[in-house]
Amino acid sequence: MKLAIMQPYFLPYIGYFQLMRAADLFVYYDDVTFIKQSWINRNRIILNGREFLFTLELHGASSFRNINMVSVGRNRPRLLKTFLQAYMDAPYYNEIKPILLSIMSSTETSLPEYIIETHQNILNYLGVEVKCIKSSSIEKGSSLKGQDKVIEICRKLGAREYINSPGGKELYSKQDFTDNGIVLSFLQPLETRYKQFGNDFIPWLSIIDVLMFNSASEIRLMLDNYRLI
């Protein structure tokens, strides 16, 4: 069984969804410390021809609290207006607008629960099924940290392969995973270009950008555009 584990990210780039697609089971890492200035609650879109960093307002976010102890703030209506303004001339605006309306009008206040809900909205539109659970639902040693905690989750769930994002190369040892009977792989997204508003392509933006400029069938093909290393 192939397993992937990631903190819940709000409207992340396509590589996040590639990781979900590559795994037999995807674990939302919701019982680890919230990291400020990470991509958990922010990402980038194109606004007026330039990159624009958007941020989901949070309450209770702290490096001393776990992600599942953080709640969503009140700026979702403002973010919705920004998204719709930014992409009103995009080719798939009419198809994606109802999805954004559903996502941004949610009354869910728990940060991980809300993000999981947004991901499911997008996956449903794409016609992609991903089996997901939360790490907080898995019994494990409370003192475990970092790589040891990930290996413990893999062992508890019976994973034979663990797939991580490229950022984990400096954090995890392939030999340590091998010693526990687990193959460690890193998913490297391959750049997929598509026509945006201007002539210069801006890569690795929020999934919103991908959705606005590509059909669901085209995006499903993009989800397989990666290599494991």
Short description:
By secondary structure, this protein is α/β, with parallel strands linked by helices.
Short descriptors:
229 residues, six-stranded mixed β-sheet, two-stranded antiparallel ribbon, alpha/beta
Distance between the termini: 18 Å
Shape: globular
Element-level helix/strand string: EHEEEEEHHHEHEHEHHE
User: Which bin fits the share of residues in helices?
Assistant: 25-40%
- What proportion of the residues form beta strands (DSSP E)? 15-25%
- How would you sum up the major sheet? 6 strands, mixed
Cross-sheet strand order for the largest sheet: 7-2-1-8-9-10
The total strand number stands at 10
> Count the helices. How many?
8
Mean pLDDT: 96
**What's the structural domain tally?**
1
Give the class from helix and strand content and strand pairing: alpha/beta
Rounded to the nearest angstrom, the radius of gyration is 18 Å
Low-confidence stretches: none
Describe the structure.
The protein has 229 residues and is α/β, with parallel strands linked by helices. It has one domain. 35% of the residues lie in helices and 18% in strands. The protein has helices at residues 14-22, 76-86, 93-104, 111-126, 146-157, 174-179, 207-213, 216-222; strands at 2-6, 25-28, 42-47, 50-55, 58-59, 71-72, 132-134, 161-164, 183-189, 226-228. The chain has a six-stranded mixed sheet with strand order 7-2-1-8-9-10. Helix 6 links the parallel strand 8 and strand 9 (183-189). Helix 2 packs antiparallel against helix 3. It is globular, with a radius of gyration of 18 Å. The model has no long low-confidence stretch (mean pLDDT 96).
